[in-house]
Amino acid sequence: MAPGPDPNSVGDGAKRDEATTKVPSKDPKKKDDKKEEDLSEEDLQLKQNLELYVERAQDPNPELQKAALESMRLTGSEGDIGSWGHEYVRNLAGEIAEEYTVRQGEEASIEDLMDLVQQIVAFHMKHNAETEAVDLLMDVEDLDLLLEHVDRTNFRRTCNYLTSAAKYLPGPDDMLVLDIAYMIYIKFEEYPNALQIALFLDNMQYVKQVFTSCTDLLRKKQFCYMISRHGITFELDPEMVENDVDREMLQDIVNNTKLNEGYLTLARDIEVMEAKTPEDIYKAHLLDGRASSGPSADSARQNLAATFVNAFVNAGFGQDKLMTVPSDSTSGSAGNWLFKNKEHGKTSAAASLGMILLWDVDAGLTHLDKYFHSNDNPIIAGALLGVGIVNCGIKNDCDPALALLGEYIDKEDSSVRIGAIMGLGIAYAGSQNDQIRSSLSPILNDAKAPLDVIAFAALSLGMIYVGSCNEEVAQSIIFALMDRSEAELGEALTRFLPLGLGLLYLGKQESVEATAEVSKTFNEKIRKYCDMTLLSCAYAGTGNVLKVQDLLAQCGEHLEKGDIHQGPAVLGLAMVAMSEELGLDMAIRSLERVLQYGEQNVRRAVPLALGLLCISNPKVTVMDTLSRLSHDTDSEVAMSATVSLGLIGAGTNNARIAGMLRNLSSYYYKDASLLFCVRIAQGLVHMGKGLLTLSPFHSERLLLSPTALAGIVTLLHACLDMKSIILGKYHYVLYFLVLAMQPRMMLTVDENLKPISVPVRVGQAVDVVGQAGRPKTITGFQTHSTPVLLAAGERAELATDKYIPLSPILEGFIILKENPDYREE
Length: 825
Fold this sequence. Notes:
Elements: H1 10-38, H2 41-57, H3 62-75, H4 86-106, H5 111-126, H6 130-139, H7 146-149, H8 155-166, H9 173-187, H10 191-200, H11 204-213, H12 217-230, H13 244-254, H14 259-270, H15 278-282, H16 289-292, H17 299-313, H18 334-338, H19 343-356, H20 361-369, H21 377-390, H22 400-406, H23 414-427, H24 434-444, H25 451-464, H26 471-483, H27 486-489, H28 496-503, H29 513-519, H30 524-538, H31 545-556, H32 566-577, H33 581-597, H34 600-613, H35 620-629, H36 635-648, H37 655-667, H38 672-685, E1 692-693, E2 697-698, E3 703-704, H39 706-719, E4 742-743, E5 745-749, E6 759-765, E7 778-785, E8 788-789, E9 794-798, E10 803-805, E11 812-818
Parallel strand pairs: 5-11
Antiparallel strand pairs: 1-4, 2-3, 5-8, 6-7, 6-9, 10-11
Helix pairs in contact: 2-3, 4-5, 5-6, 8-9, 9-10, 10-11, 10-12, 12-13, 17-19, 17-38, 19-21, 20-21, 21-23, 22-23, 23-25, 24-25, 24-26, 25-28, 26-28, 28-30, 30-32, 31-32, 31-33, 32-33, 32-34, 33-34, 34-36, 34-39, 35-36, 36-38, 37-38
């Protein structure tokens, strides 16, 4: 080996370098003598400075070297920095970011830096390095510069990067980044993407601006489909659409009136119109003798389970074999099935009719009408709830649900009142309807009203005003909570009060702080519970890491038996982390730890949190964890795990989960409660015969529908106390899931909104943000003709150039326009 250099000879090395650099500089000196006289004073000064810098740059002291090199760059050639090469520009960008931070600390001038930034950004944008340009501008906090530098060729890649980066930025930076992306999309008339970001920001002014900026009526129809899928209430005004007839047609699309038609078109195409019975789902003949030998003792409970399975499986198809069969048929009439259920079971049975006729308001109201004339209160209650379910997500100018349910809110019987209140909550979720508020708010502060009526009123108000931060509703719920006695605070249903309060702030982050302060004054029985619920709702879907840490800290505490606030903390963990893939995987791993080390009441909530994280997305690892927990010695854990197996497989017909549940049904054939949970899960897995999803995310997991999340979270909070709510007499809480039920379809329609069939490729979505060139966005695809089903994580693209889709994201209803440049080969 060659001997290493002597560490003490560093100085010599520097001197040697100096000698070598100085030698060539003697020769040109003679020629330059004449030139030197021609230089002006400024230039001379500059030349001397530069010479000084060159000397300093060779100084043995690294500090001096660095300072000299930096000042050289700043006083250096003002011209094109690109000529120095790409690597140089990248290094420079990194140094500018550091220098900027230093100067911000010292409050020094940054003008010279900003001139350089301008040049670097221009260079990056020209050379397909949009991501680096965006990073630099984020570092120097001046994203507005982007608007000057984006052009037709690179704006899509730039905006893709901005929207993906927003998930990982702390607030309020994330909103600023999305604002810029929105402006760029509007600038290049890429309205569908602009609309998505407007919906993500929940900014109605922006949504309006998209409508006013765009002049093409067909594109506006597509916007309306996007808004209706997001599930918000939105009124078009003359500014957005001038022509009255057009406006009415567009409002119809926003109101979702065509959803049922599209869904049935899909069902006919896939040939699943034939009604299924619960027995078709249970497939008891595949099990060994003991479980299928005959009905077990608790047949009312089994009939109730069959009611739910029947409702979930035939949801939206308008026909089934239990409730809608004509009464004169020999097989037994609908009336008969209704009366195979015990008292409160009749409520769920009557309401199941609403589920079967989901989204078909006219037929639904006709079918349910006969139950209003019954003298049996539970049946009337069920019919009221059914009306709410039929109208779920469908808006109507004449408000049939409000007209029918409004007069039952103040009846004597509390079950009827709950039916009407819950029906209103489901039908008008997210509508912020003041008329309903004025009739429900008084119930909250009515001393004579029973606790369950108050709990459901709070919940329905939370649904109707979801994410609105409405002060008045918040006040009413807070007073209702303060008025509860010690005994009432111990009741299971009291948990719906904090939840109703939390829903008002769903996803609204800091806006919850004032209310959270007030909640610290509540009775200590409910104080912590309220705190956790508010925190988890306010940060739901934001992926906020700090809040995840807070919630994990709560889950880790080992407390007395009576504490119930850890349940919502575990659910909150899932609610906050569910928005993006990385956070989701990390949350699943954290929950594994919580399972191992957590107390019993924490373990009971873990399966539910897993169910929320992978809802309608059966990941094998989570499936195995839940399968293990469904045999747990603690029956509450086993029940939660069983229901969660249904949630992760909801609407997927997943054969593996279906098999697990069949085995569980024979394993638990003697345990009525657990068998009930298994049946519910089986109904969920085959929901809508595999055409529906419960996922609150849509538009390639960018947008989170607030009403859908509200429905799921309500069910999960109810499942924290299975025995008293779902296995008690409030099993109809299961119907809150209807808020999240959506067809997982892609249906192409022509310019007159009539379905047309075109070939599409469906495959696993690939994340191509920031990749070079034009990479493929899907992998492992198959070609089908529309309408098609999209599973979790799948994406579709047209396989023909004959049509142009009016939205870049092919989900739900897509309008196709004929391609004028298309030539048949």
